[in-house]
Amino acid sequence: MSNGHFSDVSKASAFGLDNVVAAETPLSHVDGEAGRLIIAGHDVEDLVAAYDFEGAVALLWRVAGLEPAPSGDDVRRDLGRARMEAFRLVPALLAATRGLSVTEGLRTGFSLLSDEGDLAAHIRTVGSAPVFIAALCRRDEGKDAIAPDAEVGHAADFIRMLRGAPASEAEVRALNAYLVTVTDHGMNASTFTARVIASTRAGMISAVVGAFCALKGPLHGGAPGHVLDMLDDIGTRENIDAWLVREIAKGERLMGFGHRVYKVRDPRADVFNKAVMLLTNGNERVRFARDVETAALAALKAAKPNQRLDTNMEYYTAVLLEALGIPRVAVTAVFGMSRVAGWSAHVIEQERVGRLIRPQSRYVGRWPDDKAA
Ligand SMILES: CC(C)(COP(=O)(O)OP(=O)(O)OC[C@H]1O[C@@H](n2cnc3c(N)ncnc32)[C@H](O)[C@@H]1OP(=O)(O)O)[C@@H](O)C(=O)NCCC(=O)NCCS
Q: Which residue positions are annotated as catalytic (predicted)?
């Protein structure tokens, strides 16, 4: 390998496509220096106050250029029907996913869906996620799947299908806050994956299966389960500092901290922190998580003074979804249940752009005519 070829791309950042603009989109904007997230023209805090999940999906689809422009009520009706339709696939899903985790099960579930019908495939995909996740979680607990209720909202129906009892208003509000917040987030790894696949005209289902595979990694949407493992492992307040120092010294990454784009606190962490405080009134687990967060930020600052590492959204995702009674094994899938709306809007947008995404690589291997090599 020639160092001459390699030297100008040898910085790690060159391989992570940092700061490379891969699309123009009105769907969302992440300002990593200001700690600001804009989704479809709204600051995330305002979006959460104004919309439930169905309203946010309708907004994203409208902004992506879907015609006729859907309303929140249209989406509510269509997702309700799509959940009913997805329930018919549950026996096949459970048969195909024996021994697989909930995350792997949802990945398989998405691939069972049909790509028939342009908009129908989008509705089908967004609508199926809560049905599949609830059925997979209940199977883990040795329980039968519960049929959807098309008359209740997406968030409420998910909790109902998961636990077999209706959700409280506070729970529905908290889950909607979560689902709305994470619908879209700039050109993150899974959204980029969805757009690359959509650009080959492979269709919505393929784009979502690929995007979900990208999402489930621990450096993306797979972190919250590890956050809860960390809180459990630390266990008591006396252990916090020693545990953090030991893990950082071993070269471990603290899950729920650091972000490629945010160099300050992720604004979504505050939305979830507020939601979990409203839901739990600041119970002991939430107070413990806050203490661990404070200590972790200090430990990271001491160990990595040149890095700007702050709390990312996965930290409070973990705390919020746990408070909602969502099993630890399902938190990544629940992230996917929301982000599928953003992927869908990006697929619509990418298909309108119509241009294959095909970057270049730089060859640093042996040249056949290089006799010295
Ligand atoms: C999200 C993440 C992948 C972004 O990282 P990135 O921009 O690619 O940064 P890098 O991987 O180049 O890391 C830069 C430095 O910060 C350190 N770092 C980054 N996140 C860290 C973390 N959570 N804990 C400890 N150190 C961390 C790296 O070890 C590296 O240090 P070094 O230069 O001494 O080796 C990273 O912060 C991370 O792994 N976080 C933990 C997982 C997580 O919370 N994921 C959810 C993201 S929303």
A: 259, 314
